[in-house]
Prior knowledge:
The protein has 7 helices and 11 strands.
Amino acid sequence: xxxxxxxxxxxxxxxxxxxxxxxxxxxxxxxxxxxxxxxxxxxxxxxxxxxxxxxxxxxxxxxxxxxxxxxxxxxxxxxxxxxxxxxxxxxxxxxxxxxxxxxxxxxxxxxxxxxxxxxxxxxxxxxxxxxxxxxxxxxxxxxxxxxxxxxxxxxxxxxxxxxxxxxxxxxxxxxxxxxxxxxxxxxxxxxxxxxxxxxxxxxxxxxxxxxxxxxxxxxxxxxxxxxxxxxxxxxxxxxxxxxxxxx
Length: 247
């Protein structure tokens, strides 16, 4: 074998080894990323989870509001990627307690029974105004003495939370908003920022974020601002009545 052929053989072998090593490294990195995602969402391969939504009150049949349906599709992609099995359930169907399997609860807490129950028990520092007889003030959040009122189509608020309780330790994710477009915005924020949220709060950590959806009449769920991390105030016992309005 002459020197040229030897050099070509060595170069080809080095290239193959490099490609194999690179592929193995990428595969290992992908496995670690998937493991972190499964841990954050509480969705190990083969596990079960439930997506809970409410009915569209404007429809005579069982249906889901458009933005809520799109939010569930976003979550379904995450569930499939984790290798888990989802179940979709309406809010007024009897379900087991939380903790045994991961739960994604999406909707308006003034109309979504299970979501309202989760807010009351897991976020006692959050008050959700049911509205007066004319409907004014409906959905207003009061957290830490501050009221967050929506201006439909202009400024709307949504709570995005990851909480753990009950037996089993699986998390419940809440997207509790003032309008369906805010639920979709919260789910998109969760999916897009899952790695950052896991780093900041820990794979098993709890958090409750208050998000603001800006000018949804023009931009839909696309323009979202983080108002504050309200975990401490939201998980604290409810404060006495009397609050100030959010600016």
